[in-house]
């Protein structure tokens, strides 16, 4: 069975992106789902001096190994001031120092959501543009706006047109990891 990582790009205990990533994963059949909690990869803020003095922290090495062992990734990015959360960016920075090709050519479904109408589109676009430079094979990307109006824990996406679009994205990713 294919091993798919489920990641919310946030350390928020009630992260809507973790919820969204998990719901996306639940729609794909016959896969092993491995949930990552970014709180398990907390490290000092990246600096070149810290790297020169102490090398790459174990947490970043562990993060890379988990990516390398997976068959695909569902990542939903939280947006803070138009960009990644500090926690996610810190993991990205440290891990990219260990291995520039950090996403290891794994198929990635990129998601993003926020309570606002923008649906965390800035951070999604940023990842779509840059992750290929870090070895990402982005299969599809999707932003869900106004999370609390358009999502329920029981039903997932409740808005019909948003759901139709989302189902297509899920199908595309599902086909790509199983082919
Ligand atoms: C410091 C900070 C900055 C934020 N900046 C944005 C933003 O730029 N765009 C946005 O849509 N939401 C922004 N928000 C609201 C987040 O989208 C909201 O907190 C959301 O729950 C974050 O996702 P998470 O629950 O998965 O952590 C911000 C929240 C915080 C705490």
The total of helices stands at 7
**Could you name the CATH homologous superfamily?**
Flavodoxin domain
Give the terminus-to-terminus CA distance: 12 Å
| Poorly predicted parts | none
Ligands bound, unique: flavin mononucleotide
By CATH reckoning, the class would read Alpha Beta
Q: How many strand segments?
A: 7
SS-derived structural category = alpha/beta
Roughly how much helix do the residues carry, as a percent range? 40-55%
CATH-defined architecture? 3-Layer(aba) Sandwich
Strand order of the largest sheet: 2-1-3-4-5
Tell me the CATH topology. Rossmann fold
The average pLDDT value, as a whole number, equals 97
Calculate Rg over CA atoms.
16 Å
Describe the protein in words.
The protein has 179 residues and is α/β, with parallel strands linked by helices. It has one domain: Flavodoxin domain (Rossmann fold), CATH 3.40.50. The chain is 42% helix and 22% strand. The protein has seven helices and seven strands, in the order βαβααβαβαβαββα. The protein has helices at 16-26, 48-54, 58-69, 86-98, 121-130, 147-150, 160-178; strands at residues 2-9, 31-36, 72-77, 107-113, 137-144, 151-152, 156-157. Flavin mononucleotide (FMN) binds next to helix 1.
Which tags fit this structure?
five-stranded parallel beta sheet, 179 residues, 42% helix, binds flavin mononucleotide, single chain, globular, 7 helices, Rossmann fold, alpha/beta, two-stranded antiparallel ribbon
Task: Tell me the layout of helices and strands.
Elements: E1 2-9, H1 16-26, E2 31-36, H2 48-54, H3 58-69, E3 72-77, H4 86-98, E4 107-113, H5 121-130, E5 137-144, H6 147-150, E6 151-152, E7 156-157, H7 160-178
Parallel strand pairs: 1-2, 1-3, 3-4, 4-5
Antiparallel strand pairs: 6-7
The structure holds flavin mononucleotide.
Flavin mononucleotide binds next to helix 1.
């Amino acid at each position: 069975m294919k091993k798919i990582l489920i990641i919310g790009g946030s350390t928020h205990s009630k992260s809507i992106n973790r919820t969204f990533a998990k719901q996306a994963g639940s729609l794909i059949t016959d896969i092993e789902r491995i949930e990552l909690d970014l709180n398990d990869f907390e490290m000092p803020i990246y600096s070149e001096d810290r790297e020169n003095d102490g090398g790459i922290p174990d947490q970043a090495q562990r993060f890379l190994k988990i990516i390398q062992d997976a068959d695909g990734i569902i990542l939903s990015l939280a947006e803070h001031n138009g960009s990644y959360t500090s926690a996610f960016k810190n993991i990205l920075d440290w891990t990219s120092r260990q291995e520039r090709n950090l996403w290891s050519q794994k198929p990635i479904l990129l998601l993003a959501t926020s309570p606002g109408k923008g649906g965390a589109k800035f951070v999604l676009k940023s990842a779509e543009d840059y992750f290929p430079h870090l070895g990402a094979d982005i299969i599809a990307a999707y932003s869900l706006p106004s999370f609390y109006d358009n999502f329920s824990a029981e039903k997932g996406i409740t808005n019909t047109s948003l759901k139709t679009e989302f189902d297509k994205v899920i199908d595309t990713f599902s086909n790509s990891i199983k082919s």
